[in-house]
Design brief:
By secondary structure, the chain is of the alpha/beta class. The protein folds into two domains: 4-252, 3-Layer(aba) Sandwich (Rossmann fold), CATH 3.40.50.300; 269-491, 3-Layer(aba) Sandwich (Rossmann fold), CATH 3.40.50.300. 35% of the residues lie in helices and 25% in strands. It is built from 20 helices and 20 strands. The strands form four sheets. The chain has a six-stranded mixed sheet, sandwiched between helices. The chain has a six-stranded mixed sheet with strand order 16-17-18-14-19-20, sandwiched between helices. Strands 1, 2, 4, 5 and 6 form a five-stranded antiparallel sheet that branches. Helix 17 (421-438) links the parallel strand 17 and strand 18. Helix 6 packs across helix 7 (154-166) and helix 11 (245-253) crosses helix 17 (421-438). The two termini are 36 Å apart.
Length: 498
């Protein structure tokens, strides 16, 4: 097998300028190389360029002294050559599982697309799709073949994307944030899968903001800052003794330890949910869930992918109604708003940030400039459209949009799962201060235990649609009683200390 060899890679995007500058990168057969860096460093552009996608953009300039992919000279490869290489020689696991799967196609069609293009017989194709789904950690893969992406949880969709990259047997796998939407136990399975792929002799380029994931599986790591690799070396060496300021900043930003802001005194009862149940067809998403939310507190909700966290969020904001149980609101009735996991998909791409904020504003809410100030964004962004913002900026605009309605309860569904640790730290600090600055209570839903520990006063642990443990956050984290909670905490190894 041949690996990936790049020298002097430079990418210039129209209207943006140099996004990658002089990148040297090698991924040999049988090794995992990790790329880490802050939001906007150029990580995803690098991934797309290594598969020939960036080159297809009008007005883009891509040049390199050497660019070899699995033995092919890719410097001057055209669309036809890249299409032959993708899936067969190099494959990509995209970052955004919510947007990358076609909601109208079955999982069998999505995962087996590469094989269908090669005219692999349908019976053989189905067998290989089932095997790839199982490899990616999806239980009962045969039952998923006829389902569509909208019927899967975020974590299940992410694993389906991984299966689609594995099914073609490519020599090089480029994994762009492959554990972003996964809980700790499933993430460990996926990382172990990447390690097995490496041990089979294939090369893996892992792009991740999760330093714990990088420490677990990567042989070497490169730190990307503003399109330049500023530090590279063996993973243990770079993460334990970083030389560059950008590397030290990433390590310092990783969430660790308990909440640093004192809990607000419990205020009036805003919401009391009792015995909530919700089923979709024959699948029970929630069963007998109780939740109380008081003014001035942050309530964390954690659990595995598919445990019912997002279904609970949809019930709390009234997007769906429970099949059983009740949600009683305090008097006067509190205003409840959602900060979604995928802010880009929830914005009208034609609207400016100012129009987005004005459309959501209550008569008594601050103006757009004041709202941006609350989430520490520059007023100049008011004229911008969502697609031109970074992931961290979009998430802050999503929070500002929710605050525009002057909510009493803010329901945050995986608000930092797709963000690098530096950007994530800023969003968490913002959420930490919301109860004192705006008076809003926060329901914080996440698969990341370290993040929940950092922001929450109380925590609920969910498994298979049921709350298996709850209590004050530190009591749960330091003295977990339920086996599932202990398993989650054990699996959630955090980024190494400086």
């Amino acid at each position: 097998m041949s690996g990936l060899h790049v020298r002097g890679l430079r990418v210039i995007l129209p209207g943006t300028g140099d996004v990658l500058q002089g990148i040297d990168l090698d991924v040999a057969p049988g090794e995992i190389v990790a790329i880490v860096g802050a939001s906007g460093a150029g990580k995803s552009v690098l991934a797309r360029t290594l598969l020939g996608f960036t080159q297809e953009q009008s007005g883009t300039s891509v040049a390199a002294a050497r660019f070899e992919v699995a033995g092919h000279d890719a410097k001057r490869a055209g669309r036809r050559e890249w299409r032959r290489m993708r899936g067969r020689d190099v494959a990509l696991v995209l970052q955004d599982a919510l947007q990358s799967l076609d909601p109208l196609r079955t999982i069998e069609a999505e995962v087996g697309e590469t094989l269908a293009l090669r005219r692999v017989p349908r019976a053989v194709r189905r067998e290989r799709v089932v095997h790839a789904l199982a490899e990616a950690g999806l239980p009962d893969p045969e039952t998923l073949l006829a389902r569509r992406s909208g019927e899967l949880s975020g974590g299940m969709r992410q694993r389906a994307l991984i299966a689609s990259a594995l099914v073609g047997g490519a020599n090089i796998l480029i994994a762009d944030e492959p554990t972003t939407a996964l809980d700790a136990t499933v993430a460990v399975h996926v990382l172990d899968l990447l390690a097995r792929i490496r041990d089979e002799g294939r090369g893996v380029l892992l792009i991740s903001h999760d330093l714990a994931a990088v420490a677990r599986v990567a042989d070497r790591v490169a730190v990307l800052e503003r399109g330049v690799i500023v530090e590279t070396g063996p993973t243990a060496q770079v993460l334990s003794a970083p030389r560059h300021e950008a590397t030290r900043a990433l390590l310092a930003a990783a969430p660790r330890g308990p909440k640093s802001v004192a809990a607000q005194p419990a205020g009036r009862l805003l919401l009391n949910a009792e015995g909530l149940g919700r089923a979709y067809r024959s699948v029970t998403a929630l069963r007998d869930v109780d939740l109380r939310v008081h003014a001035g507190e942050v309530v964390g909700v954690v659990g595995a992918s598919g445990s019912g966290k997002t279904t609970l969020a949809r019930l709390l904001v009234g997007a769906e109604h429970p099949d059983t149980g009740t949600i009683a609101l305090g008097t006067p009735a509190p205003r409840i708003r959602l900060v979604p996991q995928d802010p880009l998909g929830s914005f009208d791409p034609r609207w400016s940030v100012e129009r987005i904020l004005r459309a959501s504003s209550a008569p008594s809410s601050p103006g757009p400039r004041a709202l941006l100030d609350l989430v520490e964004l520059e007023p100049a962004l008011l004229r911008r459209r969502p697609a031109t913002l970074s992931g961290g900026q979009r998430q802050r605009v999503a929070i500002a949009r929710a605050l525009a309605a002057s909510p009493d309860i803010l329901v945050c569904d995986e608000p930092v799962s797709a963000l690098d640790v530096a950007t994530q730290a800023g969003i968490l600090e913002l959420i930490l201060t919301l109860p004192s600055t705006t008076g809003a209570a926060v329901v914080f839903i996440s698969h990341d235990l370290a993040v929940v520990r950092r922001v929450s006063d109380r925590v609920l642990v969910m498994s298979a649609g049921h709350v298996v443990e709850e209590g004050p956050t530190e009591a749960v984290f330091t003295g977990a009683r339920h086996p599932f909670t202990r398993e989650l905490i054990s699996a959630a190894s955090r980024a190494p200390q400086e």
